[in-house]
Amino acid sequence: MTGVGGIAADGLSWYEATARQRVGALVDPRTFVELIGPEQRETSPHLTIFDLPEQFDDGMIVGHASIGGRAILLAAQEGRFMGGAFGEVHGAKLTGLLRAAQALRRDVVVLFDTGGVRLQEANAGELAVAEIIRALVCARSVGVRIVGLIGGRAGCYGGGGVIAGCCSTLIASEHGRIGVSGPDVIETNMGVEEFDARDRALIWRTMGGKHRYLIGGADLFVDDRPAAFREATLTALRRRAGLDLDTLLAEHARLERRIARFGDKTDAIDVWTALGIENAGTIPELGTRDFVRSAAGHRESADEAR
Amino acid sequence: MERMTYRLTAPHPAGGTRRQAIVGVVASGNLEVLVERTQPLDVCSVEIATSVRGFNAVWEAVVTDFVARRPTGGLRIAINDSGARPDTVALRLAQAVRLISAEGV
Amino acid sequence: MKLGEILRSLFPAGYHLGAEGKLIAGRGSLPGGGRIHLLGVAEGTFLGVEEALWLARRVLEIGPARDATPILLMVNSGSQRMSRRDELLGLNEYLAHLAKALILAELAGHGSIGLLYGHSAAGAFIATGLAASALVALPGATPTVMDLPSMARVTKLSVDFLREKAATTPIFAPGLDNLAQAGAVLEIWDSGKPLDRQLASCLGKLPAADVRDRLGQERGGRPRAATIAARVAKSAF
Is there a contact between C153 and A188 if contact means CB atoms under 8 Å apart? Predict the structure, then answer.
């Protein structure tokens, strides 16, 4: 096992941590065994064309471990390497892991931290996303749980956002963002009136962990601490497993209802007000406990309709 | 990309029993350092891949100094660098060696 | 080829559209009496929350039937719709919902062929053509992940530089040939020959598993993906 080390787990910010530090803090001590670790030097064959530096694990750590005594497969993206984006090798590691998950009937925990497809390897990245989705859905169809954790610097955008939408449970912190088109992409294509990518409050209202939790785009909301993510992961691993036609019919109904309820709203605050939350404008300032309390009884939940 | 390799005599062997360790991230101003216990006890090899050209002399100085002072014998050190400053390089090298020198697997 | 032309060539025995325009749905008659469900996004339409949901509904309606009727998914779309509203509403879940619906329909016996006859990009491509059991294309189709000018803006490299690099590798630049080489496209059909026979032949050889990474390796577009995935899968045991 590759010695990882770092700050003591209880002092760590999930957002600030590296992927390796998150893995180390999330799993039961000394249980993580990495597959195709950095010493294998399976780097991207394509970055050299652009004179870009490589990372030995190509920004994707995969392996197996225990969480709360339960055997799981695990994947973690390094959001600070190439924006955590999907490249050929990076993506293939997760594809292989999910195929193994199906064969082994073993649950998977995915630590997302990605801006989407790596442009320098765009075609490989896009295909990787498609192959990951297929492997994920096939695994879920035989009862495997795929739990997604979102709270890193790059968020979970582009193809990563679509993969997240295929997971059985999503755990997000306030720092996490989930979306398809990122703020810059929307602004560049549609203009600053449509989306001001410099308006951080707008970004977090529209795509951030709190908003996703409130409209049912994320299932569990946690503090920016590994212990909080770990506890939520254990909860998620106890939830009902499986993906079938009934699940999708239930999901269809909730996605239809969401458009009916909020399709005419122009800002998240209007959505939260429509949910029945008082003083919706203060939501961004609330700490985790107060926020979850405000959300209770009002938030839309996906609860196994995903 | 600039690539350099050094094979140095290491006066002090690395402690501990771990086979490998890794620190850092290849992000702007940062680097990753992978260490593996694969060399003879009096040798330390260092391979560097860096996206910033023209600093060979600085790398050589940092690396030579590090190997001379720290317990690095028996180690193969591999670096992927994205423009880290020499003090960051020295820090990561120290972290990596400390990590592999710990007891355990 | 225009959509009407394509449909007539695909279905000399006839076809029926219940919905047409930007989103299409209907059925085609196959030689020998069989039927195939028709679905599609046409006219370069952007895939937003409503569009994804509309298509998914039709896929979900097909699902329960135990008749193994396949689905033909015609694709000439834009990218995902890039708007504040779609992101606010959680477009990622709607696109994922459509992809899940297609894959589960396949697992229930309704294999799908994506037929790319125009454009598609990014998130829309992932939820339609790339979620089908097999993807085929007509010559001249223009699938992209991102166009070069946008890529140039994001990467801060010039378009000329990107074009120069694109000449040496199929790994990033838009284009049907590049994506076919990467394994995305099972086959490129011949628009000069009747499409019904090409459809029948394709229906007879829908892959049972995801072979795209293997194809990408064989064709030289993705030298590492299949090997890496296989190694991870094997060593997880």
Answer: yes
CB atoms B34 and A4 under 8 Å: no
Q: Which of A253, A252, A300, A251 is nearest to A272 (CA)?
A: A300
Strand partners, A113: none
Rounded to 10°, the helix B56-69/B86-100 angle is 40
Q: Which residues contact A78 (CB under 8 A, 6 or more apart)?
A: A18, A19, A20, A55, A57, A59, A60, A61, A84, A113, B25
- How many whole angstroms separate alpha carbon B44 and alpha carbon A12? 33
Please state, rounded to an integer, the average pLDDT across all residues of chain C.
96
CA distance A271 to A116: 27
pTM of the model as a whole: 0.97
For C235, residues 6+ apart whose C-beta sits below 8 A from its C-beta are: A35, A36
Strand partners of residue B76: B36, B45
| pLDDT exceeds 90 at position C32 | no
CA angle A178, A184, A185 (to 5 degrees): 80
pLDDT (tens digit per residue) in B14-73: 999 999 999 999 999 999 999 999 999 999 999 999 999 999 999 999 999 999 999 999
Confidence band (pLDDT; 50, 70, 90) for C72?
Answer: very high
Q: C212 contacts in A (CB within 8 Å)?
A: 127, 130-131
For residue B51, the number of C-alpha atoms closer than 13 Å in the C-beta half-sphere is 21
Q: Which residues of C touch A128 (CB under 8 A)?
A: 225
Measured distance CA(A13)–CA(A21) in Å, rounded: 10
Inter-chain touch A51–B1, beta carbons under 8 Å: yes
Element (H, E) at C127: helix C122-127
For Cα atoms B3, C158, C179, give the angle at the middle one, nearest 5 degrees.
85
Distances (CA, A) of C136 to A129, C159, C183: 18, 29, 11
The tens digit of pLDDT for each residue in A288-302 reads: 999 999 999 999 999
Q: Are residues B80 and A78, on separate chains, in Cβ contact within 8 Å?
A: no
Q: Answer whether B12 touches A (CB < 8 Å).
A: no
| Contact assignment for A55 to B51 by CB distance below 8 Å | no
- Shortest distance, CA A164 to any CA of chain B (angstroms): 24
Do B95 and A5 count as a contact with CB atoms less than 8 A apart?
Answer: yes
Cα–Cα distance between C113 and A94 in angstroms, integer?
Answer: 25
Q: Within 13 Å of residue A263, how many CA atoms lie on the same side as its CB?
A: 11
Q: Could you give the CA distance from residue B87 to residue A56 in angstroms, rounded to a whole number?
A: 22
Going C160 to C164 to C167 to C170, the CA torsion angle's sign is: negative
Tokens of A247: 């699940």
Q: In which residue are the tokens 């991870």 written?
A: C232
Q: Which chains touch B (3 or more CB pairs under 8 A)?
A: A
List CB contacts (< 8 A) between A30 and chain B. Answer: 104-105
Domain B2-100, CATH: 3.30.230
CATH class of A9-178+218-242: alpha beta
- Angle (CA) A172-A161-C180 rounded to 5° is 155
Rounded to whole angstroms, how far apart are CA atoms A260 and C159?
Answer: 43
**Residue ranges of the domains in chain A?**
9-178+218-242
Chain B residues with beta carbon closer than 8 angstroms to that of A81: 25-27
Domains located in chain C, CATH noted = 3-139+189-206 (3.90.226.10)
